[in-house]
């Protein structure tokens, strides 16, 4: 079933549509959550998966097909839920390997080798950012911090941070496209 049809089905028949989406994407969501939380805490994983689909159901109206696929939208929700869970437990992404993280950009994952090359290119592009852009970007997209928190920590205006994030994402996208990463 295509994204448009699934979304329409979810809006017309929320229970049936959500069941359809869950049957299609539950293994995908679980893989993302396990990537962040690990596989030891089965109850936390189940709870997080449920939270992802509840959020999807509540915010399906926010989905914009022009910005990406339903699968990528679900992936972002799953990642954010896993990060919230980690943060709630007092754990932060700085303890994780940067190569294993996703920053919301869909890269060409045709092969494991391609994935590793793309991850390295993304990492290099982020490391090449100047301060405070690099710090702002990492705090927002890797640590999942809110703009308000970043503003307090770095003593910068919230609007400045929002503008820098917009410009940095645009800059990163350009650099990654130049290097052959498919977005």
UniProtKB/TrEMBL annotation:
Superkingdom of the organism of origin? Bacteria
| Family annotation (InterPro entries) | RNA_pol_sigma-70-like (IPR039425), RNA_pol_sigma-70_dom (IPR014284), RNA_pol_sigma70_r2 (IPR007627), RNA_pol_sigma70_r4_t2 (IPR013249), RNA_pol_sigma_r2 (IPR013325), RNA_pol_sigma_r3/r4-like (IPR013324), WH-like_DNA-bd_sf (IPR036388)
Residues forming the RNA polymerase sigma-70 region domain are 24-90
* Boundaries of every RNA polymerase sigma factor 70 region 4 type domain copy: 121-172
Q: Which GO terms describe its molecular function?
A: DNA binding; sigma factor activity
Gene Ontology terms describing biological process: DNA-templated transcription initiation
Q: Which Pfam families match?
A: Sigma70_r2, Sigma70_r4_2
Please provide the record's keywords in A-Z order.
Answer: DNA-binding, Sigma factor, Transcription, Transcription regulation
Q: Which NCBIfam families match?
A: sigma70-ECF (TIGR02937)
Family named by the database record: Belongs to the sigma-70 factor family. ECF subfamily.
Provide the protein name.
Sigma-70 family RNA polymerase sigma factor
* Lineage of source species: Bacteria, Bacillati, Bacillota, Clostridia, Lachnospirales
């Amino acid at each position: 079933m295509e994204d448009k049809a699934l979304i329409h089905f979810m809006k017309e028949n929320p229970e049936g549509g959500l069941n359809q989406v869950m049957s299609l994407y539950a293994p995908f969501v679980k893989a993302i959550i396990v990537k962040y939380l690990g596989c030891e805490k089965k109850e936390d994983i189940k709870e997080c998966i449920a939270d992802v689909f509840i959020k999807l159901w509540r915010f399906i109206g926010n989905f914009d097909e022009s910005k990406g696929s339903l699968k990528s939208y679900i992936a972002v929700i799953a990642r954010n839920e896993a990060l919230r869970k980690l943060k709630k437990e007092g754990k932060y992404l700085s303890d994780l390997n940067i190569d294993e993280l996703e920053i919301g950009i869909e890269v060409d994952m045709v092969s494991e080798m391609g994935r590793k090359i793309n991850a390295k290119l993304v990492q290099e592009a982020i490391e090449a950012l100047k301060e405070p852009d690099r710090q702002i970007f990492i705090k927002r997209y890797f640590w999942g911090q809110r703009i308000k928190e970043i503003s307090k920590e770095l003593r910068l205006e919230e609007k400045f941070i929002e503008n820098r994030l917009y410009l940095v994402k645009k800059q990163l996208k350009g650099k990654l496209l130049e290097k052959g990463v498919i977005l």
